[in-house]
Design brief:
The structure is a homodimer of 206-residue chains. The first copy, chain A, has one domain: Tetracycline Repressor, domain 2. In chain A, 68% of the residues lie in helices and 0% in strands. The first copy, chain A, is built from 10 helices and no strands. The radius of gyration of chain A is 18 Å and the shape is elongated. Chain A starts with 18 loop residues before the first helix and ends in a 5-residue tail after the last helix. Chains A and B meet through helix 6, helix 8, helix 9 and helix 10 of A and helix 6, helix 8, helix 9 and helix 10 of B. Chains A, B: Pfam families: TetR_C_24 (PF17932), TetR_N (PF00440). Chains A, B: Keywords: DNA-binding. Chains A, B: It comes from Streptomyces finlayi. Chains A, B: GO terms for molecular function: DNA-binding transcription factor activity; transcription cis-regulatory region binding.
Chain lengths: 206, 206
């Protein structure tokens, strides 16, 4: 696993303190992405972070707690990005394009984290999965509201608002699956392409 | 893991013979989907199929051979569906809509298989991954050709044909991630919604 994700932020997982707890999260993301959650042990994660298993247990009681923290921080961040764009000034088209650009950029830059979060949802404990599903419902509601406002304002023509919302979010999330930091498109370029495609999906007035 | 996938075909993996080899593939898909490739042993797979590990080795020499067979059959089938629609009569819009409906239906009905195939690509041996990537390149070429033909015929307005092709395929593939057989939309309904959204993405003439 490369450090490609580290290009997206000055310090990945900078919100996690102390430093040892942050390093363990970074190591857990890499280990889960490479081998899958179930094939990874807390010993593997501690080893990647250059720590002993005992040092890991000071910060995280279980492997599931690591997955939950990764998933929670990732979803909180994605929701905050969408809410910032939804609450900005501008037409529905400008806000929808901004939300898509921002959401795509996050999934491109943090693609390893996003893959772990998406593909290992079933490995979360029931109460944690319920909490994450609620955050996803909120992200869906933010995008649905922008689209609904555009329809009400006569800016968009959308026969199926819930279905189109689902498709817009799915299109952006799947960037994490195929995005390659060594590929020909930068996160910003994919964001610009996708913003244009999404405005076409909602038949935005030019 | 439910048998929801079995609703998509009379006999899942019916192309695989003999029957013991077919049952082992079904068991491998379920095991990989639940626990991930690396956390699954050939003993787990044999046990799910009601066989001994020795009986498994008659049909598959390694766990990787099982993943390769699953991935190969899945990709062959998806490519064949796209080629059938691309080669049908009709305008570019009709063929593109048909390809999207067919590709979406496959990813919805066979969502467990599609997830394994997508998420475990890195677990394939190098020569097998190269082979699968070539099949994906061919699927991309089929869709790109329909879009290019539509542009040439003046039916579509697409500034970035490779980028739009990538987005169309990504949108359809991600159905496998979120599709829920107990959800409110059937595979055909998702296919119809997505065909409409994709025709909007290419600005098809009405």
């Amino acid at each position: 696993m490369s450090t490609a994700e580290e290009t997206g932020d000055d310090t990945p997982w900078g919100e996690v303190t102390p430093e040892a707890a942050r390093r363990l999260l970074v190591a857990a993301v890499e280990a889960f992405a490479e081998r899958g959650y179930h094939a990874t042990t807390t010993r593997d994660i501690a080893g990647r972070a250059g720590m002993s298993p005992a040092a890991l247990y000071i910060h995280y009681k279980t492997k599931e707690e690591l997955l939950h923290r990764i998933s929670r921080i990732g979803h909180d961040r994605a929701l905050a990005l969408l809410e910032a764009e939804a609450g900005s000034d501008g037409s529905a088209a400008e806000r929808l394009a901004g939300a898509v650009r921002s959401f795509v950029r996050w999934h491109a830059e943090r693609h390893t984290t996003a893959r772990v979060v998406q593909y290992e949802l079933d490995a979360l404990a029931d109460e944690h999965r319920t909490e994450i599903i609620e955050l996803r419902r909120q992200s869906d509601a933010v995008v649905r509201r922008i689209i609904s406002e555009g329809v009400a304002a006569g800016e968009f023509d959308v026969p199926d608002v819930p279905g189109t919302t689902l498709a817009v979010l799915s299109l952006c999330i799947d960037v994490a699956r195929w995005f390659n930091a060594q590929g020909s498109r930068t996160p910003d370029e994919v964001g610009a392409l996708y913003a244009d495609l999404v405005l076409r999906m909602v038949a935005a007035q030019k």
